[in-house]
Structures are given as C-alpha cells and as structure tokens.
Amino acid sequence: MSLARFWVCRLVLALFCCPVLGYKLRSNLSQSDFKPAREELGVVWQHCAVEGSECPCSGLVRFGEGDRWVAAEHAEGKLMCNVSTFQEDPAFNRRKECWCAVGQSGQTARASAGSAAIVTLSRHPPDLNTWIRYHLHYAGVEHIFIKSEDSPETAELIRQLPTEDQAKVTLWESAASLLGVSSSDSRPQDDYTTLQARQTAVMARAKQACEEMHIDWLIHIDDDELLYTPQHRKIGDLLAAVPTAFLQAYLPNVEAVYKSAEVQSCFMQTDKVNVNRYKFQSYANGKSAVRVGAKEVRPAGPHLWRDGLNQDLPSVHMDQEPFGPPIIVVHYESCPFSRWQDKFWELGNTSPEKVSQIPFPFYRTSISKMQICRSNTESGKDARELEMLGCDQASLMQFWSQWKTEANPSLTLEDLMPIHIPWEKIAL
Ligand SMILES: *[C@@H]1O[C@H](CO)[C@@H](O)[C@H](O)[C@H]1NC(C)=O
Ligand SMILES: *[C@@H]1O[C@H](CO)[C@@H](O)[C@H](O)[C@H]1NC(C)=O
C-alpha cells in the first residue's frame, strides 16, 4: 500500500494546522498564489520555485524532480533555484523545481524521537570503521549488531573505537573465529543458500535484542552498504513518522558508481549512484526496516520480514513517497578493485553449472574472466602472454572500470544521481 494515499487526509489537516500554510489559505485563496505542499514523513514541504526562478526560503531547501533530489541549508531568505546554487544536478536533462521545508506535521511534533538499529553479517568487511562511524554519527542509527565470520580483525577494530561508540556496537563472533581459527573450509564462499540462512538467523537474534533495548526499528544491511537520506534527516526520525499501522518499510537500493579503478576508500570517494534498477549489477529488491514491536514476525530472507503464517506484513514502500524514497540503501558493490580481484579469483573454481545459475551478468562475466586468468597464471604463462589474454593488472582494471565506473557504456547521465555525504563533518 502507498503511504501517499494514507497521508492524503492528514495532509489536508496539516495545511490547516501549519501556521504558514493556514495563513496563506485564509488570507488569499486565489489560484495563482496557491503553493502546493507535500508531506514527507513528518516534514511539510512547500513548492517555492521552478528551475531558473527565485525561491523565497530560509532553512532546508530541496532541488530536483520526480524521485531525484538534493537538499541544502540556505540562510539568506531567498535563493536562485538552479544547478549553480546546489552545485549538482540531481536529474540531468529534466526540468527541476525547488521546495522549501516549512514545518513539521502535527503527528510528528507529538511523536517522540524514534530509534533505529542495523544488523549485518560481516565477513572481511571493506571499511568497517567508516561504515560504523557513518551510521552512528551521521545517519542517526542508535545501535549496530555485527555477526562477524572468519574475521578476527573486526573485534580488534571495535576495541579501538571511542568508548561511547563501543557501547553502541554489539559484536557476535562465530565460535570458529573466537578460537582464532579460520572456518572458511567448512563454509564455501559461493554457497548463497547457507549465507541466507546465516543472515536470517542473525536478523532474528538482533530483533530480540532490540526488544530488550527498546529500539523501535531494525534494518538488515550488508557491510558494503550505507543507509542514505537525500534530505539529510535521521533514519530514526524518518521511521518514527511511519504510522503505527505499518510494521515494515521497504527501502529501495541503488548502486555506487565509482570514479576510477584507483579508488581506495569506496564510501568516502563516491559521489554518484546509478538509480536505474534495470541496469543494476547486483540485487534490485531493496532491504527493509521492521518495527521491533511487531510480534510473531520473522525474516523471510535477507530482504524482508513476514508474519508467523508467512504472509506479507502491512508495509509502506518508501519509493512511493511524494519525493521518491526518503531512505535509500546505497550498495558499494565490488569495491575497491582489489576486493573484486580477490573475490573473483577465489570464485574462479566455481563450476559452470553454478555460474550459469547466477542471475547477474557482471558476476558471471567476472567469474569467466578470472577463470581464464587464474588457469593461465597457474599454468605458468609469462607476463607478456598474460597481457595478451587481458590478465595483466592494467587490463583487469580496465575490465572493472567498464562495469563499475561512469565508463560503463550502458550507463547514461540520466541513470546517475549525485549523493552528498558531508564526510568532513563526520568524526572518523
Ligand atoms: C491575492 O493574490 C493576488 C494574486 O497574487 C493579488 O493580486 C492580491 O493582491 C492578493 N490579495 C490579498 C488580499 O493578498
Ligand atoms: C543560476 O542563477 C545565477 C543567478 O541568476 C546565474 O548567475 C547562474 O548563471 C545560473 N546558473 C545556471 C546554471 O543557470
């Protein structure tokens, strides 16, 4: 069901409750002066300008069209609604507009601030330090649950966090990594079925823990994903504005598009995402937030929750919100380049039957590429021969760039949306 429909009557109420809009409506009902307003999870936005004209607004302004937006604070009282002001184009080749945040709806003003936790099953995480700090210090996540597999370095990393951060991270280690031995022999990496079972087990365990800690919402994401809010609000506050009738919120995912194969710090060096799900290189069905107070619900795979009878939960779809999704999962897949190289080298011995079952062309192509390179390297081909086969470092980086950067020939400017994370303000 669409939350937009649910909000229609509430929006009418908001128009009269909110002093600014109420005054406008009472004082001048002429069509030309009427500025449309929309509510997005507790905040009322008012249309202030079309692209190329002046928007009277102090505070938070958003610029964009449809489901693509950037947002910025403006103190001056008015601004020119154009790409120069926002310094990025959220919707290339489309006529954009500006909306000004004019207040909170009555419902949100009454509601207490919400809390949200995330849970992940982590194995050789690419940059767990940045991932933790981003979610605690910027995204407004209250607590993090990490089940660590085969990665003793994770415990050490958490021990080195500031004390107040450590208190917000719960680490569960598998028995094998507690003993300091690798458990990878008993757990084939390409076994997606057992991976899902281990993910759902840790999701259920975290939900139980959230109940005890009185946390309102729980989201399962991977350690190469960030929860992003285009309007820079806190995840807990956004979810607190979801009406209590809904037990789950679907969050769509998008894919990071990297600057080049040289990128090392994938979270911090990326400022563009591909929002065209038909061109994704990995899954496209998003993740979901579950209301911790919901009884008898359980994970149905890593992407969603169902009730005790395996039926759908009453859910809101964030991508049907009036400005598109207010919370997005950004997937930083196969990054940095060296991580891709290691992963697919390992997967190079996957059987042809298994490869043909993988639904993603990028994965299949990467595996075949690595099978060629691995067998030729192991059979002792020299550097020149490997270069001829496209297996030298430069050729492999070129291969990766053709998928993971803007050099990807299937991506157009229309597929890309800028994301803006103020890393300089996040204590790392
Ligand atoms: C109502 O709006 C019209 C058109 O913008 C304007 O000409 C008129 O002066 C306004 N009336 C009042 C009472 O503000
Ligand atoms: C935006 O508006 C300013 C002020 O009018 C102008 O100088 C600038 O060239 C405009 N930028 C674009 C991209 O139209």
Model regions low in confidence, pLDDT < 50 over at least 5 residues: 11-31, 177-188
Q: What's the end-to-end separation, in Å? A: 39 Å
Question: What would the average pLDDT be, to the nearest integer?
Answer: 88
Q: What is the level-2 CATH architecture name of the largest domain?
A: Alpha-Beta Complex
**And the CATH topology of the largest domain?**
Spore Coat Polysaccharide Biosynthesis Protein SpsA, Chain A
Estimate the strand proportion: 15-25%
Please, how many domains? 4
Structural class of the helices, strands and pairings?
A: alpha/beta
What ions, cofactors and ligands are bound? 2-acetamido-2-deoxy-beta-D-glucopyranose
- Count every beta strand, where a strand is a DSSP E run of 2 or more residues: 19
> How many whole angstroms does the radius of gyration measure?
23 Å
List the total number of helices: 15
Largest sheet: 7 strands, mixed
- Please give the order of strands in the largest beta sheet: 8-7-6-9-14-11-17
Query: What characteristic shape results from the CA principal axes?
Result: globular
Pfam family, one: Glyco_tranf_2_4
Protein name: Glycosyltransferase family 92 protein
Signal peptide: 1-22
Keywords: Signal
